[in-house]
Queue: 3 jobs
Job 1
Amino acid sequence: MTVKFVAAIDHGTTSTRCILFDKLGAPIAVAQRGQTMHYPRPGWVELDMEEVWNRTQECIHEALGSAGAAPADIAGIGITNERESVVLWDRRTGRPVARSIVWQDTRTAAAADALAADGGIQRLQDRTGLPISTYSSALKLGWLLDQDRARREAAVRGDLLFGTPDTWLLWNLTGGPEGGVHATDPTNASRTLLMNLHTLEWDQDLLDLLRIPRALLPEIRSSSEVYGSAVGDLSGVPVAGVLGDQSASLFGHTCFDHGDMKSTYGTGAFLLFTLGTEPVLSEHGLITTVAWKLGDADAVYALEGSVAMAGSLVQWLRDNLGIIHDASEVETLARSVEGSEGVVFVPAFSGLFAPYWRDDARGVIVGLTRFANKGHIARAALEATAYQTFDLAEAMLADTGLEQLGELRADGGMTKNELLMQFQADVLGSPVAAPAVAEITATGAAYAAGLATGFWSGLDELRANYTITRRWQPEMDSDERARGVAAWRSGVDRTLGLTRPSGTA
């Protein structure tokens, strides 16, 4: 029997999905389950990973049933996941010793400050490509180990296993306590603050510095290879692809060449720029990360910048200001005025992140006059997402020496907002394009698995699958763009120093 599909398991922060893709890269069956978020204290965000695994199995069962597919119809399984979250579990029982600490969790702020006290937040950048922050997995893992002396001793003995969510799913998919594969890929390992960006191996100096026992770490393998065979509903199907979510999105967009860029517009926004096989350490506030590693080929690197407030700013307009009743109404409200009329909204609600890294900043709305109304505020909120992305793109140009950006490929819920996408193209001075397939992150995971199992022949076949269905061309003249950027930067300046930086009295 000829295989028909590749399965992708897409684990996000609030839900997990299983999607079956056909030879043309089209999603044929989709099953999704929500998962309970836990907020035990301010700044703490947790997930019950046993619940996540149960939901994953339900999604697999439903997707197979929906497509009328059996394991023999599936060429391989790819996994994609939210990256910096931490899972710690017992090797023998297969049960987590605590809830997963999710990527947004900020309980390690004091530990991050202490680590950065000697050398600043870029202290470990040369080895890891990362600034020191609460996002990285290592500090979360250290926190879990420090809660119980017996837990740390068990970790040293190798009785406990650590992983980001991909590792937990891979281990369970391949048998769990009965022979499960304990591995990860470089896109996830590069977000831990423990992997050497140049060797793609766990760095002993970093392990010693952060007091992480090597015995509990997964093996770092490539992003596209056969890790092992699945059990359960997908019994015998090779698990053959692992990519962190933003790398999976970049790969799904077929951004394979130097200078290719994508931006995902969701709760936040994530801009990635493909570098090639040589990492570029950012001098302008970005993260250097592994984009993917296909089998025995050299790893491909990327520059990454993130916008903390994108879709979540629209939610704030709805929930905190009440000027819209549903997020879908923001475009209509923003179109009720001809422009923002000098109103600038900088949503530095938790400080300014890339490329500024200023935790003394707070959100501001400036340029208000008696003429300003809720339409101008809504329009300025949408423009804020585009300007924040512009800041990241400018940093990428500075880091790479390029003079002009190419086309930006976009995905995520906010790509439905025509006003935002057109303004993004205007501000960048480059086209913005959205593909036919919305499930682009899962597509990337499926592609990694399909390449490893021969379902797809190579990158050219994947490029042929990629279809643009909407493209926005820049229409704004250079003078208007320059005035808008200057007003935005002036707004950014006004956010600074509005609160004390962390670690000061």
Note: The chain has 16 helices and 24 strands.
Job 2
Amino acid sequence: MSTPVSTIEISTVASEYRQILADIKTLEEMADALKQQMIREMDVRNTEELAAGEYTIRWQLYESRRLDSAKLKAEHKDLYAAYTKHTVSTRFSVA
């Protein structure tokens, strides 16, 4: 069992954690900008697949089917309740 750290130390850890989250957000925004650049180029070339050196870039439509749980709940409450699974989880936040 480890010994508790001081409030100042945990504050430093929390600050570092928040900075890393901010850095991740910045990197995700940069990655999205690059993604949009590649998509625009594929649109210009009117293609869903592009060979670029060692990479194959794809931008394709696909279909999926998902259950509309809000509609099911509104129209068939008993059925919705019968197939609803209750879960418990934890949430961590640094505000």
Note: Strands lie at 49-52, 55-58.
Job 3
Amino acid sequence: MSILELYQTILQRKNNPPQGSYTARLFNEGEDEIAKKVGEEAIEVILAAKAQGKSRLIEEISDLTYHLLVLMALEEITPEDIQLELEKRRK
């Protein structure tokens, strides 16, 4: 699944929350909980990078990416918004 496909799935779960969905639960818990998860995952990426090997680092980067996409969806920030910002910085 691409990052864009994952983002679309997250948006679907935000707009039509299925019963038992972790993503829907995060949206229900709100910005503070989502931001907390982003912070936790960022710390886990750092720890994995320091001593847990490439495989674990990939897992933790994936977790962080997912939670960042949830935060973006909550705040109505699209991957295209991020791409535009990165392009501005490149110039």
Note: The chain has five helices and no strands.
